[in-house]
Design brief:
With 285 residues, this protein is an alpha+beta fold. Strand 3 and strand 4 form a beta hairpin.
C-alpha cells in the first residue's frame, strides 16, 4: 500500500513539474549549493553581511539526509527549497522562485515533489510557517495544498534584514501537512480544499473585517462559524502605508492568534480573503 501511495505521489509530482515547465531535483555538490544561495539572494535581497543561509550549511543538510532541492528552467536554477528533518517529520524552512516563473504553479510543483520525496522515506508529515497576513500564501497553503494551521507564532523570527521582511514584525502561522490525509491526496489530484464565507454556519459572525477606509475592525467571536478577514495586498500596504499594515498585524495577532490560543481550529481560507473557523463541533461537545 505504501509503495502504491509513493508511486502515485511521484506521478503527481512529475505531472505538476511538467505543467509548470520546470525540473525539480535534489542538490548535492558544493557548486550547486553556492548557486542555491545566489537564488535566495535574488529573491529575498538580504543584507550582504547577513546571508539567509550559507552553501556550507546547505551541504551539511543535504549530506545528512534533509530535503535540499533546486528548481530548474532548462539548465538554469530558478528556485530552491530547503526542508530539514524534525520531530514532526520534515520541516520545510524556506522556498522561493525567481519572479520570471511565478504565476505558473511552480510552488505547487515544488510541494508535490517534496511530498513524494517525504513519502518515499516514510515521512508522513511536513510542517512550515508562513506570514498569515499574506492572502495569496494563505490560500495556497490552506486551500490549494490542504495544510492545516496548528499554531500562531507572534514575531517568530524577530527583526529580519532582508528586503522582503524589513520593517515588519514576523508573525507566522505554523501549518501541518498530513501527506497521506484526504486533503493532501485531493491536492495532488488538483482538487483544492474549498470553504465559503457565505452561509458557512448556522450562526456566522465576523471577528475581524475591514472598515470602508481600509482599517481593521474587531467584531464578535461567539458564533458557530467565525470569519477573520485580511487585506488583499498586505505586502503593498507595507510599502505604501506601514502604519496601517502594523494595525492589521496587531489586529490579526489579537483575533486569529487569540482564537487559536483558545484551541479553536482554522478549517480553511477563502479565495476572497477570509480565514474560516468552524466551531459547530466544539459547541456541540
Amino acid at each position: 500500500m505504501n509503495g502504491a501511495r509513493t508511486d502515485t505521489a511521484t506521478a503527481a509530482a512529475e505531472l505538476a513539474a511538467r505543467r509548470a515547465g520546470v525540473t525539480i531535483r535534489e542538490l548535492h555538490g558544493l557548486d550547486e549549493m553556492h548557486e542555491a544561495c545566489r537564488v535566495l539572494d535574488r529573491i529575498w535581497r538580504p543584507d550582504p553581511e547577513r546571508p539567509l543561509i550559507t552553501p556550507e550549511l546547505l551541504r551539511v543538510f543535504a549530506h545528512c539526509g534533509s530535503y535540499v532541492a533546486g528548481v530548474f528552467q532548462g539548465d538554469r536554477m530558478a528556485g530552491f527549497c530547503l526542508g530539514f528533518l524534525a520531530s514532526a517529520g520534515l520541516h520545510s524552512h524556506i522556498a522561493g522562485v525567481d519572479g520570471g516563473i511565478r504565476g505558473r504553479n511552480v510552488g505547487f510543483a515544488v510541494k508535490q515533489h517534496q511530498r513524494a520525496w517525504a513519502l518515499e522515506r516514510s515521512i508522513s508529515t511536513v510542517t512550515w510557517t508562513f506570514d498569515p497576513l499574506i492572502s495569496r500564501n494563505a490560500y495556497f497553503n490552506l486551500a490549494k495544498l490542504g495544510a492545516e494551521p496548528s499554531e500562531y507564532l507572534a514575531d517568530f523570527y524577530g527583526v529580519m534584514r532582508d528586503e522582503v521582511n524589513a520593517g515588519a514584525e514576523t508573525d507566522r502561522l505554523m501549518v501541518r501537512w498530513e501527506l497521506a490525509g484526504e486533503h493532501a491526496v485531493a491536492s495532488a489530484a488538483g482538487r483544492p480544499r474549498v470553504v465559503s464565507a457565505d452561509g458557512a454556519g448556522a450562526r456566522t459572525v465576523v471577528a475581524l473585517d475591514a472598515a470602508p477606509g481600509g482599517r481593521p475592525v474587531v467584531g464578535r467571536q461567539d458564533g458557530d462559524t467565525v470569519l477573520v478577514k485580511i487585506p488583499a495586498e498586505a505586502e503593498e500596504l507595507r510599502r505604501t502605508d506601514p502604519s496601517l499594515a502594523r494595525e492589521w498585524r496587531y489586529a490579526l495577532r489579537e483575533v486569529l492568534g487569540g482564537l487559536m490560543a483558545e484551541g479553536h481550529t482554522v478549517t480553511g481560507f477563502t479565495r476572497d480573503g477570509w480565514y474560516v473557523i468552524d466551531r459547530r463541533q466544539e459547541n456541540q461537545a
